[in-house]
Amino acid sequence: KIYNIAVIRGDGIGPEIVDEAIKVLDSVCAKENFELRYEDYLMGGVAYDFKGTPLPDETIEGCLKSDAVLFGAIGGQKWDTLPREFRPETGLLKLRKSLGLFANLRPTSVFDELLDASTLKPEVLKGVDLFVVRELTGGIYFGEPRANDGFTGYNTMIYTKPEIERIAHVAFESAMKRRKEVCSVDKANVLEVSQLWRDTVNEVAKEYPEVTLTHMYVDNAAMQLVRNPRQFDVILTGNIFGDILSDEASMISGSIGLLPSASIGGKVGLFEPIHGSAPDIAGQGIANPLATILSASMMLRFALGEIKAADRIESAIKKVLQDGYRTKDLANYGAKEVCSTTQMGSIIAD
Ligand code: NAI
Ligand code: MG
Predict the structure, then answer these.
(1) Is 152 exposed, middle or buried (0-12, 13-18, 19+ CB in 10 A)?
(2) What is the required cofactor set for this protein (predicted)?
(3) In terms of domains, do 191 and 279 share one?
(4) Which are the catalytic amino acids?
(5) pTM of the model
(6) pLDDT tens digits along 256-312
(7) For residue 17, how many other CB atoms are within 10 A of its CB?
(8) What's the gap in Å between 350 CA and the centre of ligand 2?
(9) Which residue's CA is minimally distant from atom 5 of ligand 1?
(10) Integer Cα distance of 17 and 11 in angstroms
(11) 7 - beta bridge partners?
């Protein structure tokens, strides 16, 4: 079987981590008898530099005709002073919108292999297994009107009922395959849009009588994630709250360099680490490639249906962590040997 993968390396550490994911993918497909054909596309700062736009049309077209998109990260200081339409982040937001990727799935679990480390607390973290379902193409990121005239700046946090319904269905369906609990996170005590969110989620919940639904304000959720993250199964939330809470949740696992994500809802899924382009460490060969390798594994599982290959990658990662290999971000988490980005990729591939 042959699958076509659109590859977007992007900026900063993007190219470094995507190379390692491809190394690992090539190693599993040799074992599992399928073939991946990669086609490179530009997005972000690098696309602006070469094509004058952060999201060239051929990138959208290329993604649409592929079976899945594997993406690194975009952004960097070099492009931060450009007008917003030329900024790398605008390219990514437009790509998500163009591909119809309204649901962003972010699993967070804790590798037992990292739990012995002094900085993690096993009594709080052992067995954490939560799943953030973040709405990705609406909310304050896209709401109009928006403006900044140098004196007044504003954005609009807007959700329509159908937008809330469809993301709520994704959360309830995810919960049905897990522990059957959904915690919907909002700020309904203050925001009108959150009250609509809450009412709508309550309505959708009636279609899933087996699932237990609770609601939590976002400020409390931020606190509960640190205090007792084991209480959560599926967290359902909007675009900006989900962005913030999932970065917070990443530290439960030890490093933001560990967490993968899948963006789905359209014809083609996009798989990327939750972190950004980490300009502070780009080019040094120290970035943790595991989040991207795990994203590649989600791609095999959810987009291509190559479950055995995905399982292989995940057990290879466990084994490598068990053996004490760590990138620099996890050096204090029981490392026997601190290795570079490329070494980590090669060990997992082997
Ligand atoms: P970031 O996630 O790039 O970095 C935050 C911190 O985590 C940094 O200290 C970085 O070194 C560290 N880090 C991130 N990934 C790592 C990895 N794989 N291994 C080891 N350490 C890692 O977020 P930041 O610094 O706020 O943003 C940098 C740029 O990335 C900005 O231009 C931002 O707009 C962009 N960005 C892009 C995203 C994307 O492409 N999906 C998502 C978030 C930010
Ligand atoms: Mg983020």
Answers:
(1) exposed
(2) Mg(2+); Mn(2+)
(3) no
(4) 141, 187, 219, 243, 247
(5) 0.93
(6) 999 999 999 999 999 999 999 999 999 999 999 999 999 999 999 999 999 999 999
(7) 31
(8) 31
(9) 278
(10) 11
(11) 40, 70
